[in-house]
């Protein structure tokens, strides 16, 4: 199997092997990455974390787990602009720095191995964690508890004071959804750093992992435009138009499609 197939097969296990799947994404971008080496590193980390955990029932160890990881150096990558390795799990395990989602994937893997209940939450702009049934969320970057007011404040910092917290922001994230979000993050990071072919690999994975929206087709269309692939760009713009419910965006997409001339021959 190729790295993409290995990645997808990890999601078919029960329970899903989310971190290993993310490591195969790293292999897609760098053939020298060896997932087995990263898993060995994780086993050593598991032993370190276990030594730092207090003697408490498993149901009370979610926050101590995150604090232990923070003590061991796992923190949010504050480098700007953020580089792709902040979302590539082999690098995150080495550097102990990463985006919130990448740190959350490490924490979820350790929680699963140690029998600690913990789940991901697809909070917009900053991935969060939760002890199932708890009245608060947990920040994977250190373990801070976030109650409703904290979540509203976090949302406002990400999207402005007009953003409104709702139940959709607090829904449990499945392993497939987390991998798709990780792929979107990588698509954006590679695009920002002008790694268009790498971003296209991520964009295609986004499409393969589940339901997508107008924004996903538009993001891939923009990559095809930069790579001078007008036929593929047209295909994605047409799908973005079909899926969009924003009148202004629909007008812009229609105009852009009209400006596309006869596609020239190009390699896709």
From TrEMBL:
Pfam families per the UniProt record, alphabetical: Transglut_core2 (PF13369)
Domain spans labelled Protein SirB1 N-terminal: 40-183
Matches recorded under InterPro entries: SirB1_N (IPR032698)
Residue intervals passing through the bilayer: none
Family stated for the protein in its record: Belongs to the UPF0162 family.
Name the UniProt record assigns to this protein: Protein SirB1 N-terminal domain-containing protein
Annotated source species: Pseudomonas cremoricolorata
Lineage: Bacteria, Pseudomonadati, Pseudomonadota, Gammaproteobacteria, Pseudomonadales
């Amino acid at each position: 199997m190729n790295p993409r197939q290995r990645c997808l097969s990890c999601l078919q296990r029960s329970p899903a092997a989310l971190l290993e799947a993310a490591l195969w994404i790293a292999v897609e971008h760098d053939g020298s990455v060896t997932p087995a080496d990263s898993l060995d590193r994780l086993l050593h980390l598991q032993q370190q974390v276990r030594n730092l955990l207090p003697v408490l029932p498993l149901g009370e160890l979610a926050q101590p787990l995150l604090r232990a990881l923070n003590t061991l150096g796992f923190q949010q990558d504050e480098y700007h602009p953020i580089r792709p390795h902040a979302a590539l799990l082999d690098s995150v395990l080495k550097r102990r720095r990463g985006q919130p989602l990448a740190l959350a994937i490490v924490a979820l893997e350790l929680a699963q191995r140690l029998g600690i209940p913990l789940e991901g939450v697809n909070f917009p702009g900053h991935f969060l964690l939760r002890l199932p049934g708890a009245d608060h969320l947990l920040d994977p970057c250190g373990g801070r508890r976030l109650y409703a007011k904290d979540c509203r404040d976090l949302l406002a910092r990400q999207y402005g004071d007009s953003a409104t917290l709702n139940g959709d922001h607090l829904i449990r994230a499945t392993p497939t959804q987390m991998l798709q979000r990780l792929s979107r993050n990588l698509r954006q990071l590679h695009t920002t750093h002008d790694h268009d072919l790498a971003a296209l690999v991520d964009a295609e994975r986004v499409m393969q992992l589940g339901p997508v929206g107008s924004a996903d087709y538009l993001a891939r269309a923009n990559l095809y435009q930069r790579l001078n692939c007008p036929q593929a760009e047209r295909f994605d713009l047409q799908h973005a138009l079909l899926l969009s419910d924003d009148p202004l965006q629909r007008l812009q997409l229609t105009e852009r499609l009209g400006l596309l001339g006869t596609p020239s021959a190009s390699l896709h």
